[in-house]
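Q: Could you fold this chain for me?
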Amino acid sequence: MERVALLRYGEIHLKGLNRPYFERALYNNIVRALEPYEGVTVRKAEGRYYVENIGDNPRVFDSIAKVFGIISFSPALKVEKDIISIQKAAEMLLRQAIEGRSAAQEGPFTFKVESRRSDKSFYLNSMELSRKVGGYLLKRIPNLKVDVHNPMVMVNIEVREWAYVYCQTIPGAGGMPVGTNGKAVLLLSGGIDSPVAGWMIAKRGVEITAVHYHSFPYTSERSKEKVIELCRILSQYCGEIKLHVVPFTKIQQELYQKCPHNMLTILMRRFMMRIAEMVAHREGAKALVTGESLGQVASQTLESLCATNDAVSMPVFRPLIGMDKIEIMDLAKRIGTYETSILPYEDCCTVFVPKHPVTRPKLEKVREAEKLVEGEKLIEEALANIEVLNVKG
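A: Sure. Below is the predicted structure, expressed as C-alpha coordinates.
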Protein backbone atom coordinates (compact mmCIF):
# COMPACT_ATOMS: atom_id res chain seq x y z
CA MET A 1 0.00 0.00 0.00
CA GLU A 2 1.62 3.21 -1.16
CA ARG A 3 0.63 6.86 -0.64
CA VAL A 4 0.33 8.70 -3.95
CA ALA A 5 -1.50 11.67 -5.40
CA LEU A 6 -3.86 11.54 -8.41
CA LEU A 7 -3.77 14.74 -10.44
CA ARG A 8 -6.52 15.82 -12.85
CA TYR A 9 -6.30 18.40 -15.57
CA GLY A 10 -9.10 20.36 -17.17
CA GLU A 11 -8.93 22.54 -20.28
CA ILE A 12 -6.17 20.46 -21.82
CA HIS A 13 -8.81 17.81 -22.50
CA LEU A 14 -10.38 20.25 -24.99
CA LYS A 15 -7.23 20.51 -27.09
CA GLY A 16 -7.02 18.73 -30.41
CA LEU A 17 -3.89 17.57 -32.19
CA ASN A 18 -1.67 19.85 -30.09
CA ARG A 19 -2.84 18.29 -26.83
CA PRO A 20 0.47 16.40 -26.30
CA TYR A 21 2.26 19.78 -26.30
CA PHE A 22 0.17 20.99 -23.36
CA GLU A 23 0.46 17.66 -21.56
CA ARG A 24 4.26 17.73 -21.82
CA ALA A 25 4.36 21.30 -20.52
CA LEU A 26 2.16 20.39 -17.57
CA TYR A 27 4.30 17.34 -16.80
CA ASN A 28 7.46 19.45 -16.82
CA ASN A 29 5.84 22.06 -14.56
CA ILE A 30 4.74 19.41 -12.06
CA VAL A 31 8.24 17.93 -12.00
CA ARG A 32 9.72 21.41 -11.49
CA ALA A 33 7.33 22.17 -8.62
CA LEU A 34 8.25 18.93 -6.87
CA GLU A 35 12.02 19.22 -7.32
CA PRO A 36 12.57 20.13 -3.66
CA TYR A 37 11.17 16.78 -2.49
CA GLU A 38 13.77 14.06 -2.76
CA GLY A 39 12.60 10.78 -4.27
CA VAL A 40 9.20 12.04 -5.42
CA THR A 41 8.39 10.95 -8.98
CA VAL A 42 5.76 11.98 -11.52
CA ARG A 43 4.16 9.60 -13.96
CA LYS A 44 1.56 10.18 -16.64
CA ALA A 45 -1.16 7.74 -17.58
CA GLU A 46 -4.41 8.13 -19.46
CA GLY A 47 -6.19 11.25 -18.21
CA ARG A 48 -4.15 11.47 -15.02
CA TYR A 49 -0.77 12.32 -13.59
CA TYR A 50 0.46 10.32 -10.63
CA VAL A 51 2.82 11.65 -8.00
CA GLU A 52 4.51 8.74 -6.25
CA ASN A 53 6.93 8.19 -3.37
CA ILE A 54 5.47 11.15 -1.49
CA GLY A 55 5.69 9.55 1.95
CA ASP A 56 3.99 11.57 4.70
CA ASN A 57 5.17 15.02 3.61
CA PRO A 58 2.05 17.27 3.43
CA ARG A 59 4.06 20.06 1.76
CA VAL A 60 3.99 18.02 -1.44
CA PHE A 61 0.26 18.71 -1.66
CA ASP A 62 0.83 22.45 -1.12
CA SER A 63 3.18 22.47 -4.10
CA ILE A 64 0.81 20.46 -6.29
CA ALA A 65 -2.01 22.92 -5.49
CA LYS A 66 0.06 25.74 -7.03
CA VAL A 67 0.65 24.16 -10.43
CA PHE A 68 -1.47 25.87 -13.08
CA GLY A 69 -3.26 23.33 -15.27
CA ILE A 70 -4.24 21.00 -12.41
CA ILE A 71 -7.97 21.37 -11.62
CA SER A 72 -8.01 18.95 -8.66
CA PHE A 73 -6.05 16.20 -6.99
CA SER A 74 -6.58 13.47 -4.45
CA PRO A 75 -4.23 11.97 -1.89
CA ALA A 76 -4.75 8.25 -2.50
CA LEU A 77 -3.62 4.78 -1.57
CA LYS A 78 -2.22 2.70 -4.44
CA VAL A 79 -2.88 -1.02 -3.96
CA GLU A 80 -2.94 -4.30 -5.86
CA LYS A 81 -6.00 -4.93 -8.01
CA ASP A 82 -7.62 -7.43 -5.68
CA ILE A 83 -10.72 -6.95 -3.59
CA ILE A 84 -9.02 -7.59 -0.24
CA SER A 85 -6.36 -4.91 -0.80
CA ILE A 86 -9.01 -2.44 -1.98
CA GLN A 87 -11.24 -3.14 1.01
CA LYS A 88 -8.38 -2.67 3.49
CA ALA A 89 -7.36 0.61 1.88
CA ALA A 90 -10.95 1.86 1.99
CA GLU A 91 -11.24 0.89 5.65
CA MET A 92 -8.01 2.70 6.55
CA LEU A 93 -9.08 5.92 4.84
CA LEU A 94 -12.61 5.84 6.20
CA ARG A 95 -11.36 5.30 9.77
CA GLN A 96 -9.05 8.30 9.32
CA ALA A 97 -12.01 10.40 8.16
CA ILE A 98 -14.06 9.32 11.16
CA GLU A 99 -11.21 10.18 13.54
CA GLY A 100 -11.12 13.66 12.02
CA ARG A 101 -14.81 14.22 12.58
CA SER A 102 -15.75 17.08 14.88
CA ALA A 103 -16.71 16.05 18.40
CA ALA A 104 -19.87 18.17 18.01
CA GLN A 105 -21.12 15.90 15.22
CA GLU A 106 -23.54 13.29 16.50
CA GLY A 107 -25.31 10.29 15.00
CA PRO A 108 -24.05 7.69 12.55
CA PHE A 109 -21.23 8.48 10.17
CA THR A 110 -22.53 8.36 6.60
CA PHE A 111 -20.58 7.31 3.53
CA LYS A 112 -20.91 6.18 -0.05
CA VAL A 113 -18.62 4.09 -2.23
CA GLU A 114 -18.19 5.09 -5.86
CA SER A 115 -16.10 3.00 -8.24
CA ARG A 116 -14.72 3.51 -11.71
CA ARG A 117 -12.99 0.94 -13.90
CA SER A 118 -10.63 1.95 -16.65
CA ASP A 119 -9.36 -1.62 -16.65
CA LYS A 120 -12.41 -3.45 -18.00
CA SER A 121 -10.70 -6.81 -17.43
CA PHE A 122 -11.16 -6.44 -13.66
CA TYR A 123 -13.49 -9.22 -12.60
CA LEU A 124 -16.05 -6.97 -10.84
CA ASN A 125 -17.93 -4.21 -12.58
CA SER A 126 -18.20 -0.80 -10.91
CA MET A 127 -21.52 -1.49 -9.17
CA GLU A 128 -20.37 -4.87 -7.86
CA LEU A 129 -17.11 -3.39 -6.61
CA SER A 130 -18.91 -0.58 -4.75
CA ARG A 131 -21.33 -3.03 -3.15
CA LYS A 132 -18.57 -5.39 -1.99
CA VAL A 133 -16.46 -2.61 -0.48
CA GLY A 134 -19.49 -0.88 1.07
CA GLY A 135 -20.68 -4.13 2.66
CA TYR A 136 -17.19 -4.81 4.02
CA LEU A 137 -17.02 -1.34 5.60
CA LEU A 138 -20.44 -1.70 7.22
CA LYS A 139 -19.33 -4.96 8.84
CA ARG A 140 -15.97 -3.63 10.02
CA ILE A 141 -16.81 -0.15 11.32
CA PRO A 142 -19.58 0.44 13.91
CA ASN A 143 -22.10 3.30 13.78
CA LEU A 144 -21.75 3.58 10.01
CA LYS A 145 -24.57 4.24 7.55
CA VAL A 146 -24.83 4.47 3.77
CA ASP A 147 -26.15 7.75 2.35
CA VAL A 148 -26.11 7.78 -1.45
CA HIS A 149 -27.38 11.39 -1.71
CA ASN A 150 -25.40 13.42 0.84
CA PRO A 151 -22.67 11.30 2.45
CA MET A 152 -20.20 12.75 4.92
CA VAL A 153 -17.44 10.94 3.08
CA MET A 154 -17.25 9.58 -0.45
CA VAL A 155 -14.95 6.57 -0.79
CA ASN A 156 -13.66 6.62 -4.36
CA ILE A 157 -12.09 3.63 -6.09
CA GLU A 158 -10.41 3.80 -9.48
CA VAL A 159 -9.24 0.55 -11.09
CA ARG A 160 -6.56 1.27 -13.63
CA GLU A 161 -3.12 -0.32 -13.97
CA TRP A 162 -3.32 -0.38 -10.17
CA ALA A 163 -6.24 0.25 -7.85
CA TYR A 164 -6.44 3.71 -6.27
CA VAL A 165 -8.58 4.49 -3.23
CA TYR A 166 -9.22 7.97 -1.90
CA CYS A 167 -11.71 9.98 0.15
CA GLN A 168 -10.61 13.53 -0.54
CA THR A 169 -10.56 15.76 -3.64
CA ILE A 170 -8.66 19.04 -3.29
CA PRO A 171 -9.15 21.92 -5.77
CA GLY A 172 -6.10 22.76 -7.86
CA ALA A 173 -5.00 26.12 -9.25
CA GLY A 174 -6.80 25.49 -12.57
CA GLY A 175 -5.88 27.37 -15.74
CA MET A 176 -3.27 26.38 -18.30
CA PRO A 177 0.34 25.21 -17.89
CA VAL A 178 2.73 28.16 -17.58
CA GLY A 179 4.72 28.64 -20.77
CA THR A 180 2.09 27.36 -23.18
CA ASN A 181 0.72 30.81 -24.02
CA GLY A 182 3.88 32.82 -24.56
CA LYS A 183 5.69 35.34 -22.40
CA ALA A 184 4.70 38.76 -21.04
CA VAL A 185 6.36 41.49 -18.99
CA LEU A 186 4.68 42.29 -15.67
CA LEU A 187 5.05 45.80 -14.25
CA LEU A 188 5.50 44.90 -10.59
CA SER A 189 5.20 47.77 -8.12
CA GLY A 190 5.24 46.02 -4.76
CA GLY A 191 1.65 46.95 -3.92
CA ILE A 192 -1.36 44.66 -3.69
CA ASP A 193 -2.58 44.75 -7.28
CA SER A 194 0.29 43.96 -9.63
CA PRO A 195 1.27 40.60 -8.05
CA VAL A 196 -2.37 39.50 -8.38
CA ALA A 197 -2.38 40.61 -12.03
CA GLY A 198 0.77 38.57 -12.62
CA TRP A 199 -0.79 35.52 -10.97
CA MET A 200 -3.93 35.83 -13.10
CA ILE A 201 -2.11 36.12 -16.40
CA ALA A 202 0.25 33.27 -15.47
CA LYS A 203 -2.83 31.17 -14.74
CA ARG A 204 -3.67 31.44 -18.43
CA GLY A 205 -0.35 29.81 -19.30
CA VAL A 206 1.76 32.94 -19.75
CA GLU A 207 5.37 32.99 -18.61
CA ILE A 208 6.09 36.08 -16.52
CA THR A 209 9.12 38.36 -16.64
CA ALA A 210 8.91 41.19 -14.11
CA VAL A 211 10.01 44.83 -14.25
CA HIS A 212 10.26 46.93 -11.09
CA TYR A 213 11.09 50.63 -10.93
CA HIS A 214 13.37 51.59 -8.06
CA SER A 215 13.83 55.20 -6.94
CA PHE A 216 16.79 55.08 -4.60
CA PRO A 217 17.32 56.96 -2.27
CA TYR A 218 13.63 57.93 -2.21
CA THR A 219 12.79 54.24 -2.01
CA SER A 220 14.81 51.93 0.21
CA GLU A 221 16.56 48.60 -0.19
CA ARG A 222 13.75 47.17 1.88
CA SER A 223 11.24 48.13 -0.81
CA LYS A 224 13.36 46.25 -3.35
CA GLU A 225 13.60 43.23 -1.05
CA LYS A 226 9.83 43.34 -0.74
CA VAL A 227 9.45 43.04 -4.52
CA ILE A 228 11.97 40.20 -4.62
CA GLU A 229 9.90 38.41 -1.98
CA LEU A 230 6.74 38.94 -4.04
CA CYS A 231 8.51 37.36 -7.01
CA ARG A 232 9.53 34.49 -4.78
CA ILE A 233 5.89 33.89 -3.80
CA LEU A 234 4.68 34.17 -7.40
CA SER A 235 7.42 31.81 -8.59
CA GLN A 236 5.81 29.04 -6.54
CA TYR A 237 3.03 29.21 -9.15
CA CYS A 238 4.94 30.47 -12.20
CA GLY A 239 8.40 28.96 -11.87
CA GLU A 240 11.56 31.04 -11.77
CA ILE A 241 10.95 34.75 -12.49
CA LYS A 242 13.47 37.05 -14.12
CA LEU A 243 13.20 40.38 -12.30
CA HIS A 244 14.49 43.58 -13.91
CA VAL A 245 15.09 46.36 -11.38
CA VAL A 246 15.12 49.65 -13.30
CA PRO A 247 16.73 52.78 -11.77
CA PHE A 248 13.96 55.36 -12.08
CA THR A 249 15.09 58.28 -9.89
CA LYS A 250 16.62 60.42 -12.62
CA ILE A 251 13.54 60.14 -14.82
CA GLN A 252 11.29 61.18 -11.94
CA GLN A 253 13.56 64.10 -11.02
CA GLU A 254 13.66 65.36 -14.62
CA LEU A 255 9.89 65.13 -14.95
CA TYR A 256 9.42 66.88 -11.61
CA GLN A 257 11.73 69.75 -12.55
CA LYS A 258 10.55 70.35 -16.13
CA CYS A 259 6.97 69.16 -16.58
CA PRO A 260 3.55 70.27 -15.25
CA HIS A 261 3.13 68.71 -11.83
CA ASN A 262 -0.48 67.69 -12.39
CA MET A 263 0.73 65.39 -15.20
CA LEU A 264 3.58 63.75 -13.29
CA THR A 265 1.74 60.51 -12.64
CA ILE A 266 0.64 59.95 -16.21
CA LEU A 267 4.07 60.95 -17.56
CA MET A 268 5.81 58.52 -15.21
CA ARG A 269 3.44 55.77 -16.30
CA ARG A 270 4.27 56.43 -19.95
CA PHE A 271 8.00 56.16 -19.24
CA MET A 272 7.43 52.93 -17.31
CA MET A 273 5.48 51.45 -20.19
CA ARG A 274 8.14 52.39 -22.74
CA ILE A 275 10.92 50.85 -20.65
CA ALA A 276 8.84 47.72 -20.04
CA GLU A 277 8.19 47.41 -23.77
CA MET A 278 11.91 47.57 -24.51
CA VAL A 279 12.59 44.92 -21.88
CA ALA A 280 9.85 42.84 -23.48
CA HIS A 281 11.55 43.06 -26.88
CA ARG A 282 14.84 41.95 -25.31
CA GLU A 283 13.16 39.01 -23.57
CA GLY A 284 11.00 37.87 -26.47
CA ALA A 285 7.79 38.82 -24.65
CA LYS A 286 4.70 39.76 -26.64
CA ALA A 287 2.65 41.80 -24.17
CA LEU A 288 2.74 43.97 -21.05
CA VAL A 289 0.73 43.22 -17.90
CA THR A 290 -0.31 45.77 -15.28
CA GLY A 291 -2.37 45.67 -12.10
CA GLU A 292 -4.60 48.58 -13.08
CA SER A 293 -8.26 48.55 -12.10
CA LEU A 294 -10.60 50.98 -13.79
CA GLY A 295 -11.26 54.11 -11.70
CA GLN A 296 -9.12 53.06 -8.72
CA VAL A 297 -6.74 56.08 -8.87
CA ALA A 298 -6.08 59.08 -11.12
CA SER A 299 -3.87 57.11 -13.51
CA GLN A 300 -6.58 54.47 -13.97
CA THR A 301 -9.41 56.47 -15.51
CA LEU A 302 -10.30 55.60 -19.08
CA GLU A 303 -8.60 58.76 -20.34
CA SER A 304 -5.45 58.01 -18.33
CA LEU A 305 -5.32 54.41 -19.54
CA CYS A 306 -5.67 55.59 -23.13
CA ALA A 307 -2.81 58.05 -22.58
CA THR A 308 -0.71 55.25 -21.08
CA ASN A 309 -1.47 52.89 -23.96
CA ASP A 310 -0.44 55.59 -26.41
CA ALA A 311 3.16 55.32 -25.20
CA VAL A 312 3.60 51.76 -26.52
CA SER A 313 2.61 49.62 -29.48
CA MET A 314 2.61 46.30 -27.63
CA PRO A 315 -0.68 44.86 -26.26
CA VAL A 316 -1.30 45.77 -22.62
CA PHE A 317 -3.21 43.21 -20.53
CA ARG A 318 -5.00 44.36 -17.36
CA PRO A 319 -6.49 41.26 -15.72
CA LEU A 320 -7.89 43.30 -12.78
CA ILE A 321 -9.63 45.98 -14.84
CA GLY A 322 -13.15 45.00 -13.75
CA MET A 323 -12.39 44.05 -10.15
CA ASP A 324 -12.87 46.24 -7.08
CA LYS A 325 -10.29 46.58 -4.33
CA ILE A 326 -11.95 44.11 -1.98
CA GLU A 327 -11.98 41.42 -4.65
CA ILE A 328 -8.31 42.06 -5.41
CA MET A 329 -7.37 41.95 -1.73
CA ASP A 330 -9.26 38.69 -1.23
CA LEU A 331 -7.40 37.11 -4.13
CA ALA A 332 -4.06 38.46 -2.86
CA LYS A 333 -4.75 36.78 0.49
CA ARG A 334 -5.66 33.52 -1.21
CA ILE A 335 -2.48 33.34 -3.27
CA GLY A 336 -0.26 34.49 -0.39
CA THR A 337 1.01 37.88 -1.60
CA TYR A 338 -1.15 40.14 0.57
CA GLU A 339 0.90 40.14 3.78
CA THR A 340 4.06 41.05 1.85
CA SER A 341 2.32 43.68 -0.28
CA ILE A 342 1.10 45.64 2.74
CA LEU A 343 4.55 45.98 4.30
CA PRO A 344 5.01 49.76 4.75
CA TYR A 345 7.93 50.30 2.39
CA GLU A 346 7.36 53.03 -0.17
CA ASP A 347 7.70 52.35 -3.90
CA CYS A 348 8.37 54.66 -6.83
CA CYS A 349 4.65 55.24 -7.37
CA THR A 350 4.39 56.94 -3.97
CA VAL A 351 7.18 59.48 -4.47
CA PHE A 352 6.99 62.61 -6.65
CA VAL A 353 3.22 62.31 -6.50
CA PRO A 354 1.31 65.51 -7.45
CA LYS A 355 -1.20 66.95 -4.99
CA HIS A 356 -3.79 67.35 -7.71
CA PRO A 357 -3.14 64.84 -10.53
CA VAL A 358 -5.03 65.25 -13.76
CA THR A 359 -7.71 62.56 -14.05
CA ARG A 360 -8.81 63.19 -17.64
CA PRO A 361 -5.58 63.98 -19.45
CA LYS A 362 -5.69 65.34 -22.98
CA LEU A 363 -3.39 63.22 -25.07
CA GLU A 364 -1.96 66.11 -27.08
CA LYS A 365 -1.09 68.03 -23.92
CA VAL A 366 0.56 64.93 -22.46
CA ARG A 367 2.66 64.50 -25.59
CA GLU A 368 3.66 68.17 -25.49
CA ALA A 369 4.64 67.97 -21.83
CA GLU A 370 6.77 64.92 -22.56
CA LYS A 371 8.88 66.89 -25.01
CA LEU A 372 10.18 69.01 -22.13
CA VAL A 373 12.61 66.22 -21.16
CA GLU A 374 15.10 64.19 -23.19
CA GLY A 375 13.04 61.05 -23.10
CA GLU A 376 15.10 58.74 -25.29
CA LYS A 377 18.32 59.62 -23.49
CA LEU A 378 16.74 59.03 -20.07
CA ILE A 379 15.33 55.68 -21.13
CA GLU A 380 18.62 54.52 -22.65
CA GLU A 381 20.40 55.40 -19.43
CA ALA A 382 17.85 53.53 -17.34
CA LEU A 383 18.04 50.46 -19.59
CA ALA A 384 21.83 50.46 -19.40
CA ASN A 385 21.74 50.26 -15.62
CA ILE A 386 19.09 47.60 -15.09
CA GLU A 387 19.83 45.05 -12.40
CA VAL A 388 18.63 41.55 -13.33
CA LEU A 389 17.79 38.94 -10.71
CA ASN A 390 16.53 35.40 -11.18
CA VAL A 391 14.10 34.68 -8.36
CA LYS A 392 12.85 31.24 -7.41
CA GLY A 393 10.61 30.25 -4.50
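A (continued): The two ends are 32 Å apart (CA to CA).
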